[in-house]
Amino acid sequence: MSTADAALIALGEQFEKRLLEYMDAWLAWAPLTRAARAEAESDLAGLSVALQRSGCEAAQARMSELKNDMQPLAEEIIPAPATSLGGLRAKALVALWEALPAGAFHHGAFEFRDDGEASRSLFDAVAEMTGLMPMVRELEARLAADAE
């Protein structure tokens, strides 16, 4: 295992711990937010009071703290090359974090959005580890030529 991959795996381990905490905080926040919205219905002033009373703001603050810890780790993980399953796992963790539903009202599943970073990073790592990267580069070059 390369030194770079060992560093990527270590970052992934740090990120995973925070991801699990973030998910717990998110799962506490979402139902509180839905309940506050249901209580206040269309009354914006009432919504603000309901959000404060229900604990949504405290849950949101915890999510923000965790996000502030996770974002720098994600920014290191995304561009790092992965040459092992541990490195690939680190990239998958970031992609999962970015795929969490954007709001309290959701469809009960991850939302894989084309963010251009984490999903691409994960795709590139899989392509590299499966020997598909030469084909990916060739196809991208052909697509770029076609777009001109």
Quick structural summary:
The chain has helices spanning 3-40, 44-54, 56-77, 85-98, 118-129, 133-147. It is mainly alpha-helical. The mean pLDDT is 82.
Characterize the structure shown.
With 148 residues, this protein is mostly helical. The protein is built from 6 helices and no strands. Helix 1 (3-40) crosses helix 2 (44-54). The longest helix has 38 residues, at 3-40. It is elongated. The mean pLDDT is 82.
Distinctive features:
mainly alpha; 76% helix; 0% strand
The proportion of residues in beta strands is under 5%
Which geometry do the CA atoms define? elongated
Uncertain segments: none
Based on helices, strands and strand pairing, what is the structural class?
A: mainly alpha
**Roughly how many Å apart are the termini?**
40 Å
Average pLDDT metric: 82
Number of strands: 0
Radius of gyration: 19 Å
Helix count from the secondary structure assignment: 6
The description of the largest β-sheet is: none
Fraction of residues in H or I helices: over 70%
Order of helices and strands: HHHHHH
How do the helices and strands line up, and which of them pair or pack?
Layout: H1 3-40, H2 44-54, H3 56-77, H4 85-98, H5 118-129, H6 133-147
